[in-house]
Amino acid sequence: MVTDTTTTASTTTTSSTTSSTTTTISTTSSCGGLRWNQTGVVVATGFKKPLAVYIGANDSIYVCDKDGHNIEEWDQCSSSGVVVAGSNTSASGSTSILFNHPEDVTFDKNGYMYVPDTDNDRVQRFPSGSNNGTTVAGTGTAANTLTGLNKPQAVAVDSSSNIYIADVGNKRIMKWAPNATSGTIWLSDNDIDHTVDIVISPTSTNRIYTTRDDKDVIYS
Q1: Taking the model in full, what pTM does it have?
Q2: Could you give the CA distance from residue 72 to residue 81 in angstroms, rounded to a whole number?
Q3: Mean per-residue pLDDT for 161-166?
Q4: C-alpha 1: how far from its chain's center?
C-alpha cells in the first residue's frame, strides 16, 4: 500500500492506493525537503509532455513541457507552478517570448536559463526574472552550417559558459563559445540523431555524457 498526500487550493486530503484501487493525484507539496526513496512522490503535475527537469536555487524545480510550449518553475513548498518562459496557454510561436516544442532546460553559473527551442531550430537564453529570450545559437531556420541548427534537443553549459548542443537533425554535438555568432563541431556521429540529454562532468569540462532514446547506452 502506498499513501499519498494530495493538496488542492482549499483542502488537504490523504488517500491510499492498493492493487485494486487507483487514486489520481492532482498536486502535492514537497515543502520540508525530500529525500531519495524507492517510492516516488508527485511534486508537479498538469503538464502536456514534460521532457526535462532542472533543480535550481532553493530546490526550485524547472520543468520543460514540450507540448505546453513552456518552462514552468515549481517552488518546493508550492502546489502549483509558474510559467517563467513560453506560453501559459500552450500556444507555440517563433517570437522572443514563445517556443515551438522546447525539449530541455538548463542554467549557467550566472543564473541564465537556456532552452533548445527544437522546432524553431534555435537555442534561447533568458536572464533571471525575464521571459524575453535571446537567440544564442541557430538562426530560426533549419540549416546544416556552423551558424545553423536542425532540431536541437538537448543543451548543457560548462563552467566557462560554453554551450554544448545536441543538434540531432544534423547528427552532431555543437559547441558555442560565449557571445559567438557561430559554433564548432564538437562531435559528429550518426548516433547523435537519437540524443535526448547532455551532461557535463563536474570534474572536467572536456568530457560530456549523452543518452539515447533508442538504445540502452550512455556515450561519453
Answers
A1: 0.81
A2: 6
A3: 94
A4: 32
